[in-house]
Structure formats: structure tokens, C-alpha cells
Write a structure and sequence with these properties.
globular, 5-stranded mixed sheet, 42% helix, alpha/beta, 2 domains
Length: 252
């Protein structure tokens, strides 16, 4: 009888472990519309989260979105508590602990936000030297810009976009680094649509990727994910998602 009870307990434990392994935990940037953002209910929405839902549902894998500050989301992937980041730029440092899927979005242009009276003539990044900029904790802007920031710029990092805008309004910083669409959407929501100038940073346009934690058991699905991403690009489905969530971001 005791042996039967022990066997039953072990079977239940194995069943629980198997079920747990089928739940993929993913996170993404909480304020990067239309690619990914948290709505008023605290749910992650956008092109990235929707792609995760569609692709892994087809693979029969249950997904669980985890809303975290951006730095903690990336740290979770580093440690293995997060299986997948659904919207992230490539950097050599991150490639040490992430396995990147093929890019699914390549129009994420970087902008420099300034007060209109202080608009910067950004011919080169050197125009930013000697000024104080603002960015989000954990943000990366690609290898080229990240290197320039680390070596030559003074950047004040905060948790939320609106904190940077508040500092810009009061003159505590001179500019804010952001992605184009997210900057336009956030400024419109804050009621500052016409109060600031946006200049394109003279750096290459960065691509947006999904990336698995190297600790995740789900990394084995990389070929299937890449294949599905290509199918969705070819069919125009990803472009439809981009248009839908861009429109939704302005309405929310």
C-alpha cells in the first residue's frame, strides 16, 4: 500500500513538472508601442506579444506574459526565470545569454527629443557631447550608439518615459533618446504633441528581435519560430499587426 501511494505521488510530481515545462514565460518592454506596451489593465500588448501568442499557440505551448520593468525583464532572461524576450535589439553583450530569432521589425528609428526652442542640428552624434540626455534604465540602442553613449555622453536614466519628459520640461536634461513611434505616441498621450521637436539620430535603423534565454528549455523551438516568422512576413500578417497596433496605441 505504501509503495502504491509513493508511486502515485511520484507520478503526480512528474505530471506537474511536465505541465510546468510547457508554460513559456515571456516579457518585453512595457512602454515601446506599437511593438510592446502595458495597457491600463497591466497586460502586455502589441506586435511582439501577439506574435508570441500566435506562434506558440500553433506549437501547442502555453505562454505566460510577465510584466516587469525593462531592466528586470532583461535580467530575468539572463538568469533564466524569463524564457523569452519578445522585443529587443541585438548587442554583443546580450548575445552572451540570449539566442536571437530572426528579426521581425526593422523600422525602429531612433530619435532625439528636445524642447522646440532648443532643437539640435544632428548632423553627427558629436552635437550631443557636453549635454545631459535622458533614457530608460536597461534601454539599448544598438552597438554603435551604445558605444558612443558609454564613452562620450552624460545620460540620466529613469524608469519611465514621462519622468524624462518632466525633466526635459524643467530643464534638468537637454534631450531624451527614444524610438520614433513610441516617442510620438507617448507625447500625444501626455498632451505634448506640439511642444517638442524630434530629430532622427544619425545612426543606423535598428532591427527588433525575439530572443530566447540560453537557460530556457524552449530554445529548441528556434527553427520553428524562425520559419513561422518568415511565413508571416511573406503573407503580410506582421505588417497588418504593425498597422493595427500602431492605430490602437494612439487610441488607448
Amino acid at each position: 500500500m505504501k509503495l502504491l501511494l509513493l508511486a502515485t505521488v511520484l507520478l503526480i510530481g512528474l505530471s506537474t513538472d511536465t505541465h510546468a515545462q510547457k508554460r513559456l514565460k515571456y516579457s518585453s518592454h512595457p512602454t515601446e508601442a506599437p511593438i510592446s506596451w502595458a495597457n491600463e489593465e497591466g497586460n502586455l500588448i502589441g506586435v511582439g506579444p501577439k506574435l508570441v501568442e500566435l506562434i506558440f499557440d500553433e506549437l501547442g505551448i502555453t505562454t505566460e506574459p510577465v510584466l516587469l520593468p525593462w531592466k528586470r525583464a532583461v535580467s530575468g532572461a539572463y538568469q533564466g526565470s524569463i524564457d523569452l524576450i519578445n522585443s529587443i535589439y541585438f548587442t554583443e553583450e546580450r548575445a552572451d545569454y540570449l539566442v536571437y530569432c530572426d528579426p521581425y521589425y526593422s523600422e525602429d528609428r531612433i530619435v532625439i527629443i528636445t524642447n522646440k526652442e532648443n532643437q539640435l542640428p544632428l548632423i553627427t552624434l558629436n552635437e550631443l557631447i557636453g549635454l545631459t540626455g535622458g533614457s530608460i534604465i536597461g534601454d539599448s540602442w544598438g552597438v554603435e550608439f551604445d558605444s558612443f553613449i558609454a564613452n562620450k555622453l552624460d545620460i540620466d536614466k529613469v524608469k519611465y518615459f514621462e519622468q524624462n519628459i518632466g525633466k526635459l520640461l524643467t530643464g534638468r536634461i537637454d534631450y531624451v533618446i527614444a524610438s520614433e513611434f513610441n516617442a510620438k505616441i507617448q507625447l500625444a498621450k501626455l498632451g505634448y504633441k506640439d511642444q517638442f521637436s524630434l530629430s532622427f539620430a544619425p545612426v543606423k535603423t535598428e532591427k527588433v528581435y525575439m530572443a530566447f534565454s540560453k537557460h530556457s528549455p524552449f530554445v529548441k523551438y528556434l527553427p520553428q519560430v524562425n520559419r513561422k516568422l518568415q511565413e508571416m512576413k511573406d503573407s503580410g500578417e506582421i505588417k497588418q499587426l504593425e498597422d493595427y497596433y500602431l492605430n490602437k496605441a494612439y487610441q488607448d
